[in-house]
# Entry
Amino acid sequence: MADYAEAVGALLVAQRFGVLATLSARHDGWPFASVTPYALSTAHEPILLLSALAEHTRNIQLDSRASLFVVDGTSADPQEGPRVTLLGRIERSDEASLRERYVSRHPQAEAYFAMTDFALYVLQVEHARYVGGFGEMGWLDKS
# Structure
């Protein structure tokens, strides 16, 4: 499993976008997914810049449980390449260092910080499901 942890870390560093899945406030808890850019905290937890107007933000205000699916986009067959689903709770953060990390990864996002409806959130990962390819998979927990 230590190899999986390293592989997950490398995948998260190599990619910049994931599919964020939240529980729909509007539709009785049905899964709701949207493409979301992310950066990484020093603990390798995804940092998300979300608008208060976005459906996923409304969802996490009622239930903070969420997952972020990240896939290696370089493979011709996405089922051959590595991918991970991170499960955890999303919490808002005003920590200045997170903003710096996010903007360094997504410079175009600097303008969003001038808008009052955008804020930073962190997915505090509790579990991860890693798939490295056919027959190579496993669960990891926070430890």
